[in-house]
């Protein structure tokens, strides 16, 4: 019981702290760091960490690691370029979204990734969903819609003294991020199921492509500014904390989920929404209105319902063709 409590605490803290910390550092007065460079650094750290884990697991030191990496073919490695491109886009869009949306609004809206992942799983992996899961997805969409209507009426609830923000830009960014998250996650799952390579090795491959694609995106979006002001312009201990959280947080969550279950993960996601909302009220002056509370409540309930075990025969989604 104590172990489950520890797992739950880890999931809640990581999930909520990443959103809140990004929002905080992106709304501080003064010079902003370049989000594209933060994405590159997170990919570098994540890839290097996974490479170290592979090295520690392989017998024979560097030679054993070389043999393990050598068994992965070039074609097999190139397959990771697609999800890596999508993940890089998603990570950059998260910064755009959180820079323009209140943390609580982003946290609620970002749960649409459950809906997109479910849809892509049905279409690409031929998975089936239970009736309860379909109902939960409908509640999820309804809850997010209620939140968006309420936030649109109050103007997005921008933090006092924050930099210029665009609610429309943030909303588009989080929706596209949810779509990319669902597609990349399902595509990556499909690759993992068709290969004997370890998850750590796959993350090394993702890290290599992610770093290269991140550098390309940095050059395209902010190349002139980075060249003029420096790669680490605007970095502070808080910014490094965000990067470390983004790099290692996902790996930590993956380890925790391996020893936990989907119900615990769904419960942790629900609690992180509550934690983000409460923290936003104190940190950013976020005002909690009844429509937002209703929409967030529907999303929290939907997330928990979706994570419950399937009961009864599955209800297959309508599909074209087969």
UniProtKB/TrEMBL annotation:
Locations listed in the record: Golgi apparatus membrane
Alphabetical list of InterPro entries matching this protein: EmrE-like (IPR037185), Nuc_sug_transpt (IPR007271)
Keyword Transmembrane among UniProt keywords: yes
Subcellular location, principal: Golgi
One GO CC annotation: Golgi membrane
Membrane topology, from the record: Multi-pass membrane protein
Pfam families xrefs: Nuc_sug_transp (PF04142)
Residue intervals passing through the bilayer: 37-56, 108-125, 132-149, 169-188, 200-220, 240-260, 267-286, 292-309
MF-aspect GO terms: pyrimidine nucleotide-sugar transmembrane transporter activity
Entry keywords, A to Z: Membrane, Sugar transport, Transmembrane, Transmembrane helix, Transport
PANTHER family (UniProt xref): NUCLEOTIDE-SUGAR TRANSMEMBRANE TRANSPORTER (PTHR10231)
Family as reported in the entry's similarity comment: Belongs to the nucleotide-sugar transporter family. SLC35A subfamily.
Protein name in UniProt: Solute carrier family 35 member A2
Gene source species: Chelonoidis abingdonii (Abingdon island giant tortoise)
Lineage, opening ranks: Eukaryota, Metazoa, Chordata, Craniata, Vertebrata
């Amino acid at each position: 019981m104590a172990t489950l409590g520890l797992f739950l605490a880890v999931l809640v803290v990581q999930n909520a702290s990443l959103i809140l910390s990004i929002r905080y550092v992106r709304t501080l007065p003064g010079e902003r760091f370049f989000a594209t460079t933060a994405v590159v650094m997170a990919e570098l750290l994540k890839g290097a960490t996974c490479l170290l884990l592979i090295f520690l697991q392989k017998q024979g030191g560097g030679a054993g690691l070389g043999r393990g990496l050598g068994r992965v073919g070039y074609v097999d490695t190139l397959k990771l370029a697609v999800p890596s491109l999508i993940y890089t886009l998603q990570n950059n869009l998260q910064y755009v979204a959180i820079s323009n949306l209140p943390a609580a609004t982003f946290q609620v809206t970002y749960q649409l990734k459950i809906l997109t992942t479910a849809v892509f799983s049905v279409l690409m992996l031929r998975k089936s969903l239970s009736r309860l899961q379909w109902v939960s997805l409908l509640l999820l969409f309804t809850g997010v819609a209620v939140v968006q209507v309420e936030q649109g009426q109050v103007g997005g609830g921008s933090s006092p003294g924050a930099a210029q923000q665009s609610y429309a830009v943030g909303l588009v960014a989080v929706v596209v991020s949810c779509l990319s998250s669902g597609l990349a996650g399902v595509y990556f799952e499909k690759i993992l199921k068709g290969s004997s390579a370890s998850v750590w090795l796959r993350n090394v491959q993702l890290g290599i492509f992610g770093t290269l694609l991140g550098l390309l995106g940095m050059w395209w979006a902010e190349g002139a500014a980075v060249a003029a002001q420096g790669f680490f312009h605007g970095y502070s201990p808080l910014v490094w904390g965000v990067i470390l959280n983004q790099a290692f947080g996902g790996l930590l969550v993956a380890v925790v989920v391996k020893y936990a279950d989907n119900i615990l993960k769904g419960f942790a996601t629900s609690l992180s929404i509550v934690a983000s909302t409460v923290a936003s009220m104190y940190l950013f002056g976020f005002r909690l209105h009844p429509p937002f509370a209703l929409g967030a409540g529907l999303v929290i309930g939907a997330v928990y319902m979706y994570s419950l075990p399937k009961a009864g025969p599955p209800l297959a989604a309508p599909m074209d063709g087969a």
